């Protein structure tokens, strides 16, 4: 028999992924009480179906290829991966899709877990249909936070929606390696999983409407494309899918150039959108807006503290509804979600103490200012792409006089890193203030160059001062010196 249970907390967080956990942790540290509502696994998409398992699938192939690229090591290693140990390695990092560790962390931290599906029913009010069959009426004294992550965007292709395709969840939790594998989408998830499965033994084809990695400089994307081709991946770029047909246990994908690709598994990796469906947002005045990628959908507008604009007031204050991470429409990256979540948690605490109103100072601890200036991201293919900040077009859209300097990565550190190392680097410079606006590195091992660039951009380090940041020899970081020399320092 269903029982209605009423509970009250200072803060209610909907979603126990990385962003939700970080909001709840910050408000607990600030002396408030918090409940977190989750219908799936505590830890969220990143821990079980995205960042962690995909990198666990990629890393063995990258390590093997790295050894094969170094004379003296190449003759001592195997030529191909054994899929079974790789899948076992992935299972270890996902804890075999068991969240007991996450549940224990919530308990140890003092965060109450309510298992169930949440729906906002009014200002500061959340109804939960519990997995235990009970209904929970939760009330927040200070804030409700939406941290529900994102969901895949599925294109409207004849035959696709009725096909048993994979999204990234299916690919990252695969129990076996398909013989023939077709990937729809040329973004980060698509290229990473294409390479992972190619190195595990799949015959992989990729289909992209434009070029690969269109959000990154073309020189960097071309290096990734070359790496995929070297692993046997067939690339169909600038190509649309006309239809998908399911043939018992296989698929036929027809392209607009007449080619037909046959596959045992089909991955749809064509983007993601904030997961805001069925949350009851209409009950607090947040209505659907037109969506160019599909039917009307809710889109939240938040300030730098995560406060949702336009939410109905409960008669005392409109400062009660927040969003963090993917749900807020911030960059769909775990580290940026956690960063904005920490700011949101601290803002909630500050407002509960009367120390913060609507307009905090930029770069304060309660704002996620970096989301506008320096968002670092890494494509963990082999070669890697690591990028942060603005590209030239973005800088010019903001009225900045931007220039670039770029060159191949060819230093002693790269030559020692791998035989026939191929890499590329670019800096985007504010020509008036002579500070960095953006940076991109492409090549094996370049992810570890990224944080230095992030610090330089966030700290607005003058190029005259950056010249004195001496790179160690012999490392990949020598490329910084070469870039500054070419710029004219």
Automatic annotation (TrEMBL):
SUPFAM superfamilies documented for this protein: FAD/NAD(P)-binding domain, FAD/NAD-linked reductases, dimerisation (C-terminal) domain
Molecular function, one GO term: flavin adenine dinucleotide binding
Keyword Chloroplast: no
Cofactor comment text: Binds 1 FAD per subunit.
Superkingdom field: Bacteria
Keyword set includes NAD: yes
Record's keyword terms, sorted: FAD, Flavoprotein, NAD, Nucleotide-binding
S-S pairs: 46-51
Co-factor requirement: FAD
Record InterPro entries: FAD/NAD-bd_sf, FAD/NAD-binding_dom, FAD/NAD-linked_Rdtase_dimer_sf, Pyr_nuc-diS_OxRdtase, Pyr_nucl-diS_OxRdtase_dimer
Domain Pyridine nucleotide-disulphide oxidoreductase dimerisation: 375-480
Domain FAD/NAD(P)-binding: 9-334
Binding of NAD(+), residues: 185-192, 271
Residues annotated as binding FAD: 55, 148-150, 326
PANTHER family given in the database record: MERCURIC REDUCTASE
Record-stated family: Belongs to the class-I pyridine nucleotide-disulfide oxidoreductase family.
Protein name (Swiss-Prot/TrEMBL): Dihydrolipoamide dehydrogenase
Native source species: Arthrobacter cupressi
